[in-house]
Amino acid sequence: MSAEGRKARLWDLPTRAMHWLLVISIGVCWWTGTNNDLEYHQYSGYAALWIVLMRVYWGFAGSSTAQFKNFVRGPATVITYLRTLHWRNTPQAPGHNPLGALSVLLLLGLVLTVVIQGLLAVDVDGLYSGPLSLYVTFKQGRHFARLHYQWFEYLLWAIGLHLAAVAFYYLHKRHNLVKPMITGRAHVEEDMKAAPLWRFALGAVIASAIVWAISKGFYIF
Ligand code: HEM
Ligand code: HEM
Question: Domain containing 168 — which CATH number?
Answer without folding.
Answer: 1.20.950
